[in-house]
Amino acid sequence: MHCPFCRHGDSRVVDSRTAEDGASIRRRRQCPECSRRFTTVETTSLSVMKRSGAVEPFSRDKIISGVRKACQGRPVSEDDLALLAQQVEEAVRATGVAEVDAHEIGLTILGPLRALDEVAYLRFASVYQGFCSLEDFEAAITALREDRAERDEAESLT
Ligand SMILES: [Zn+2]
Known about the structure:
Keywords: ATP-binding, DNA-binding, Metal-binding, Nucleotide-binding, Repressor, Transcription, Transcription regulation, Zinc, Zinc-finger. Negatively regulates transcription of bacterial ribonucleotide reductase nrd genes and operons by binding to NrdR-boxes. It comes from Ruania alba. One of its GO terms (molecular function) is zinc ion binding. InterPro entries: ATP-cone_dom (IPR005144), NrdR-like_N (IPR055173), RNR_NrdR-like (IPR003796). By secondary structure, this protein is α+β, with helices and mostly antiparallel strands. 49% of the residues lie in helices and 19% in strands. It is built from five helices and six strands, in the order E-E-E-E-E-H-H-E-H-H-H. It has helices at residues 60-70, 78-94, 102-116, 118-128, 134-157, and strands at residues 12-18, 24-30, 37-43, 47-49, 55-57, 99-101. Strands 1-2-3 form a three-stranded antiparallel β-sheet, with no helix packed on it. Strand 4 and strand 5 form a beta hairpin. Helix 1 (60-70) crosses helix 2, helix 2 (78-94) crosses helix 3 (102-116) and helix 3 (102-116) packs antiparallel against helix 4 (118-128). The radius of gyration is 22 Å and the shape is elongated. Bound molecules: zinc ion. Zinc ion (ZN) is lined by residues 3, 5-6, 8, 31, 33-34, 36.
């Protein structure tokens, strides 16, 4: 790691601490040449491969802006969106891959979004699962209804 001040090619770590969410480490470094200190943040890299073939770093903000569109007019708060993006990132990181397909992320969003808001889920699923007919919507709605019935049944048993 180059010193950002004098470009010396080496630095010494003087302090390391893990961020609260456990996803990154901040290190204080000192340059042995000019003695100035700087901070670096390390995260495991997670890249997203877009349909165009372009690769970009994973971004929770992108998840949020994508989902926000589907949530227009729905009772979903910014906190809900932030939590959803965190859940998606955790789910993707848990798979242990360094590069994930954008489409895969879209599919990963479906689970938590469905728990959050069924209408937003249907809107989002229609894009990511390529709904092209009323029958596709019908099938998705039927699946939601069946799950809901199962859930109600499970609740009535407890
Ligand atoms: Zn330096």
